[in-house]
């Protein structure tokens, strides 16, 4: 059984793609790294996917889906960060009411960093195939007030990244992915 965390590499036109979506790729990598560094071993596999070709029609996501859809019942949740890594506020979530209640409970663990909101609908080109087939999905929600200042521009460089805000994003990704991966049962569908 798999909990999938992901981001994609988006620097295809201008800039470095550090915020869009290098930040999402980084926090996904960091979540698994933190779990390993803490010596935690969840009941399910945590799988990191760094998507490619999202801007060229989601070719990488479609290929991955085609290769793994026969095991769709083993995918517990698919998580994608693709809205930058500014100050997080919560998760967008797609799934049934019982699964949403579980995710809301998990998010209460993040009260010390004031990131507890669960919004309707996860967004993510790379996880859409899975969500359309009923796999619960989550996307990081954060402060988008500056997102389009840098999105697909020469300004999307490493200097855009705030290490403190990225750490908060990584904390959200780490807690949510680990708790779901370590629950007794998969999220209800």
From TrEMBL:
User: What GO molecular function annotations does the UniProt record carry, in alphabetical order?
Assistant: carboxypeptidase activity; metal ion binding; metallodipeptidase activity
GO annotations of cellular component type = endoplasmic reticulum; extracellular space; Golgi apparatus; lysosome
Protein name from the UniProt record:
Carboxypeptidase Q
Q: Which family does it belong to?
A: Belongs to the peptidase M28 family.
Q: Which Pfam families match?
A: Peptidase_M28
Q: Which organism is it from?
A: Chionis minor
- Give residue ranges for domain Peptidase M28: 2-173
Keywords of the record: Carboxypeptidase, Endoplasmic reticulum, Glycoprotein, Golgi apparatus, Hydrolase, Lysosome, Metal-binding, Metalloprotease, Protease, Secreted, Signal, Zinc, Zymogen
- What's the domain of life for this entry? Eukaryota
């Amino acid at each position: 059984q798999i909990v999938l965390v992901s981001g994609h590499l988006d620097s295809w036109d201008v800039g470095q793609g550090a915020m869009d979506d290098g930040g999402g790729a980084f926090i996904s990598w960091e979540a698994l790294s933190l779990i390993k560094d803490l010596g935690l071993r969840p009941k399910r596999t945590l799988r990191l996917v760094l998507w490619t070709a999202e801007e060229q029609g989601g070719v990488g996501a479609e290929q991955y889906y085609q290769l793994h859809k026969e095991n769709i019942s083993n995918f517990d949740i698919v998580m994608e960060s693709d809205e930058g890594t500014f100050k997080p506020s919560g998760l967008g979530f797609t799934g049934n009411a019982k699964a949403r209640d579980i995710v809301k409970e998990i998010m209460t663990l993040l009260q010390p960093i004031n990131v507890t909101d669960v919004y309707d609908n996860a967004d993510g080109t790379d996880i859409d195939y899975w969500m359309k087939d009923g796999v619960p999905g989550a996307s990081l929600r954060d402060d988008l007030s500056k997102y389009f200042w840098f999105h697909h521009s020469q300004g999307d460089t490493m200097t855009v990244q705030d290490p403190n805000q990225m750490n908060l994003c990584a904390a959200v990704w780490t807690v949510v992915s680990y708790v779901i991966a370590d629950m007794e049962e998969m999220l209800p569908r």
